[in-house]
Amino acid sequence: MEKLADIGVFGGSGFYKFLDDIKEVKIETPYGMPSDSLFIGKIGAHSVAFMPRHGRSHTILPHLINYRANVWAMKEIGCKRVISPCAAGSLQKHVEPGHFVICDQFVDWTDGRKSTFFEGPIVTHPSAAETYCPELRKLAIDTAKELSITVHETGTVVVVNGPRFSTKAESKFFTNQGWEVINMTAFPEAYLVKEMDMCPLNISLITDYDAGLVGDVPPVSHGEVIEVFNNNVENLKKLLFSMIEKIPADQTNCKCADTRKNSQL
To answer: What is the mean pLDDT of the chain?
Structure first.
């Protein structure tokens, strides 16, 4: 297929539109249909493809997203890097609503999701020790600081299956592990990006404190999540536009492009 974009962006809850002057492209994949079309435009020297992971009308729940189709579509049109902003909850008091976390680790607490492209016959065992691209992480952190956005330079995101939020007991357990962020979509999305030899980046926008963090925190609601996200979506767009303009053309300062080669016997 014609190479249409070199950078992909997945949008989540509260973030359904990113680019204005766009071309809409529909992609069929071996894994079924993606969540939506790809919307392709320009930022600086880069062609950028945007896809709302829940669909443009937010009709696809986190546990029902066809992550493999979404990621395969980004690869098919030529993307080398994929940025995944997401609404997320905080598991630690110092990670406050409105802050950004550039996660460097994930914990998979999901169930039943199709989470790999490697199903044989070639034996392939990818390392997930450092899933997120170090070059993109540094660029995101530096850009957030330049824009005076409060950013946490590291963080572990625990990914729960959804659609329900955590019980207080579950949330307290996650907090006691020292993890900072909780979300429903960060896995397997970024990991699949890595399997496809593309560079993954997670940007977690904290919208709330999770249920078990402190005794008097009320149960989280979807409406509250969207309200905080909407209040900060302009910061997210500024961060994305600014950092994308700085991304170099080639994957020269990371090993993401060699993931498949380094995973096979």
So the answer is: 92
Calculated CA dihedral for residues 117, 122, 125, 130, nearest 10 degrees: -60
Catalytic residue among 20, 108, 208, 250: 208
In the chain, count of helices (H) and strands (E)?
Answer: 5, 11
pLDDT band at 9 (very low <50, low <70, confident <90, very high): very high
pLDDT tens-place string over residues 119-156: 988 899 999 999 999 999 999 999 999 999 999 999 99
DSSP string, 221-257: -HHHHHHHHHHHHHHHHHHHHHHHHH--SS--SSSGG
Place of tokens 């926008």: 205
Q: φ and ψ at 70, to 5 degrees?
A: -60, -50
8-state DSSP, 124: B
Q: What is the tens place of the pLDDT at every residue in 190-214?
A: 999 999 999 999 999 999 899 877 6
Catalytic residue among 111, 210, 216, 258: 210
CB-based burial label for 240 (10 Å; 0-12, 13-18, 19+): buried
- Side-chain half-sphere of 261: how many Cα atoms within 13 Å? 6
Q: Where are the domains of the chain?
A: 7-263
Q: Identify the CA nearest to 144 among candidates 232, 15, 26, 40.
A: 232
Give the position of tokens 């850009």: 143
CATH topology of domain 7-263: Rossmann fold (3.40.50)
**For this structure, is 208 an active site residue?**
yes
Residue 217 clears pLDDT 70, i.e. is over it: no
Each residue of 247-265: pLDDT tens digit?
998 888 899 999 999 998 7
Does the annotation count 111 as an active-site position?
A: no
Contact 80, 7 (CB under 8 A): yes
